[in-house]
Amino acid sequence: MARLGVNIDHVATIREARRGIEPDPIAAAILCELAGADGIVCHLREDRRHIKDRDLSLLRQVVKTHLNLEMAATDEMVKKAINVLPDMVTLVPERRQEITTEGGLDLSFNFDYLEEAISRLRSNAIVVSLFIDPDIHQIKNAAKLEADYVELHTGAYANADELNQIVEELEKLKSMAAAAAKMGLGVSAGHGLNYQNVVDVAKIPQVEELNIGHSIVSRAVLVGMDRAIREMVELIRNAR
Ligand code: PXP
To answer: What's the number of domains the chain is made of?
Structure first.
């Protein structure tokens, strides 16, 4: 069975809509763990648009399962990771204008720089994962870079809407998961996975971990709505 890493970024997105203190992603992380999540994932972006430095350091203190920090491979972020010591770092590409991480890392670009960043992280006992498209060249480069894991970008699969395209993207994920495992890499997968499309990816035997954020936070808002409304109605009703 694959492990579930819950990405809590969008709990912080809701907080940042008011630049206030709630909902607190730290409380969300604790609830995720109590409900059975195997790990917590957060992305500290350069622009700090959702998760803040304060969140990361508190998460390090409270997360009891497995803390996976997504970040760009910049010098500032590598230093931060070595300071905070998450269990895992997932290196992702980052562009300021993007709404979310749009594609995987191109490992042939800045290979030497990435090699140094990975080795600095690994020598601090941080497990390193590289977020890449399901592409054999990227997987070969990830092995050369001595990453511990690759996280296969499932966005193309999740965004496909025609059946033949969905099947094609799923086959790509299956064969690339097998290829990565054969090269000695751990395999995880994520991006755009939801309650409709997750099962076929969870069936892939080499996929050890699924990292899921937006669909879980979206569902939490809706399944929690009934109780939230009842509690507010009750307060108003009993006010006079
Ligand atoms: N994995 C990585 C590397 C990501 O960047 C993201 C998005 O932050 C996810 C998984 C989760 O994607 P989603 O929010 O679409 O489930």
So the answer is: 1
